[in-house]
Structures are given as C-alpha cells and as structure tokens.
Amino acid sequence: ESVEFSDLVSTSDFISLHVPINEETYHLIDAGVFDSMKDTAYLINTSRGDVVDESALINALKAKKIAGAGLDVLSQEPPEVQNPLLSMTNVIVSPHSAFISHEALTDLAAMATKAIIDTLEGRVPENMLNPEVLTKSQ
C-alpha cells in the first residue's frame, strides 16, 4: 500500500532506511520527522549517515521522542569518540558492515567472477552501471 511519507513515519513502529545520499535524501530524517514519529518507534539506518540529521536524532533520543536507533552508518566515519550516540543505551551502532555475511561475500565473489568471465568473452557484465562507455571507447 502506498502512503504519504508523513503518514508512514507517524504510524510505523520501525523505520528502516535504504536510500542513496543525494539532494532529496540529505537529512531526509530531521527534527520534524522525529517529532511526528511514535515515541515507541525505532529508526534503523543502513544506507548513508547524512540521510539522518544526527543532531536531531540525538535530541530525539535524549527527549525520548523515539524509543531507539540501530545505526550501521554515521555522518562521520569513523566517528569521534565523543559522539553521544556511542554511549546511549537505546542505540546500537555497528561498524558500517551490515551487509557482511558469509552468503553476501560468496554472492559478491560469484558476481565478480561472472563479470570477469563476461568481459573476457566479449559480453557486457550484467551489473555494469555505465555500459555506454564501452561503445565510446571503440
């Protein structure tokens, strides 16, 4: 079901972010969003640190406007030792490695191997983001 962003954040128990960083997503989650979230909601960010206004997050957590956060990314990496998020009991911070698992690494190796074989056999690798450069270089 498609809903307005404001409805989504005001009714969700968990908000999990999976977006690139760009002009539209920079500080997508800001003080206004935290104000509209349920005080029992959790924020999970595994995308990019700057998608969340970190100062607003710290304030929301201190004021108990949200229940907690799970962060695999921060606005500054590595974080300053004094970053308050690192000592908050309602925050879990992982070292920007959420994708790493045995399965993910196996899949990554298989994809890289296939791309190399495709290239050596004259095919465009299926995950190549800019295949148009291949025709320009000829």
TrEMBL record:
Q: Which GO terms describe its molecular function?
A: NAD binding; oxidoreductase activity
Q: Give a single Pfam family match.
A: 2-Hacid_dh_C
Question: Residue ranges of the D-isomer specific 2-hydroxyacid dehydrogenase NAD-binding domain?
Answer: 2-98
PROSITE patterns reported in the protein's UniProt record? D_2_HYDROXYACID_DH_2, D_2_HYDROXYACID_DH_3
Sorted alphabetically, the keyword list is: NAD, Oxidoreductase
Q: Does the keyword Metal-binding apply?
A: no
The entry assigns this protein to a family as follows: Belongs to the D-isomer specific 2-hydroxyacid dehydrogenase family.
Q: What protein name does the entry list? A: D-isomer specific 2-hydroxyacid dehydrogenase NAD-binding domain-containing protein
**Native source organism of the sequence:** marine sediment metagenome
